[in-house]
Amino acid sequence: MRQPPFVTSSTFEAAELTRDSSFARLWLGFMTARVAIALVLLALLSLLTLAPTLNISRWLIGLCATYLAATLAVRLFTRPAPPGQTFDPQWVSTIGVDLVAFSTLQFLQAGGINYSPLFALPVLMGSVLGSPLLALGTAAGVTLLLLTDAWLHSLSASGDTAARFLQAGLTGTGYFALAVLVNQLAARLAREEEAARVGQLAARMQAQVNELVIETLADGILVVDPQLRIHAANPAAGALLGLDQGAMRSGFGLAMQPAWEPLVALAQTTFAERNAQLGEVELEARRMRVRTRLTASHDYHTDSLCVIFLEDLREIEARLRTEKLAAMGRMSAAVAHEIRNPLAAIAQANALMEEDLREPALKQLSALVRKNAQRLAQIVEEILDVSRVQHRSPSTPAALELDPSLAATCSDWAMQTRSGSRLQLALAAPGAFVPFEADHLRRILVNLLDNALRYAGQKPDSIRVWTQIAAGQASMHVWSDGAPLTPTVQRHLFEPFFSSESRSSGLGLYICRELCERHGATLGHQRSTAGSASNAREGNEFIVRFGPGATPLAGAASFDTIAA
Questions:
Q1: Does 442 share its domain with 501?
Q2: With CB atoms counted within 10 Å of each terminal CB, which end of the chain scores lower, N or C?
């Protein structure tokens, strides 16, 4: 696997030093120290020129001024170079200039002052910002300069020159030890800074990955402190709690709404008992499974945080029902053989028995058996189709006249449910033919009407059915003034085994959609407004758009109430 670019060993050396880098701060410190030393030397030698006993040459003052100008130029107009390099032009303008200036002052003994301690600055600078070779080379150069100075003084002065050579040698040895020690410390600092930088980048990347994963989770996640302040919440939690993104970014407390009292109780119990909690609560008309976990506290200065996981029970039930659908698919072949054969035997035996019947009452019972056997066979076929999720196109059905078929179905449904007073029918597609099986269209319409009746109000126009033609396409609309669907229900509206009621199988709308797709039609849902301008109100509208066909111009829609 290719190594990421931020963990290679040469990245730090090749990258430009930033202002918050340790070596950048050290470089600025050294450059500032050089300027300060240059100012001190210039001021000191300028004051010594006033002394009558000392003969300070003016060119030494010029040397100090030149050294000050050089240090200021480096400090203001150059940038720190990456540390650890064996040679860089900056070292010539820093270490080289320092050695020339300090050795000149040392050789001339300007003002009778010993300038050998100043050599510690270039040694430290070469050891911290340079390579081991540069550090040892700088220490060796300083040692040679000190020995040369001792030799020159031995030529011009009589006395004990051995002490001067010994002092120069000991000072040089100290500079060597200082160079080795400081260079090792600088190398360790470089390794630690590189490791910290790599760790920071890895932690930042991990945080970004965690944030992305948490934001895309279907379960809601809340992070709460002991004061019940919410530090983080993913979009799923905002949707479950009914909060928009603006409220989540502005920050809010868990106890800000009385409806969240069950969450407050679980969080307080988690902090009090220091254990995870599990429970089912009802929030915002949703039943949720809530799990809490407590983060570990690594020291006494930070409090643990409570992580709350919110799961919509409808989502869980939908997954369970989908698993049931998969199990039904595996058993479909066996069910087909086990049910089809007895049904065929019953239908055949009833047909043979019907040939010998003479009494009207017995014929009526035989017809009832035949009709229900056919109905049971049809239901078995549809359930097997759902379990197999077959999407193959059937044989092309005969064209069905839309408006008369819907009128007959609505009339029969109104008589059976005694709900004609709440149903209004408007047929605006006269003469329109659609490629649809009559029984399938009847089942779709009855299912949509049953759903509308379940949630509609008691007003005369609580349920509306109408047809229309737009852009050469016929459509059927079933509207009711029921309450708006929750986002969870909308997402799984046409999934099998998903229902907002516990007693419903959740197959009705799924079968309707399957039947529509097999006939080249589509089934959809939207929230729409119906009624006159003075009596307009919102409701749930299911739309069946049929496939292309020969459809004449639509007439004007006129809603009529169907008598019960």
A1: yes
A2: N
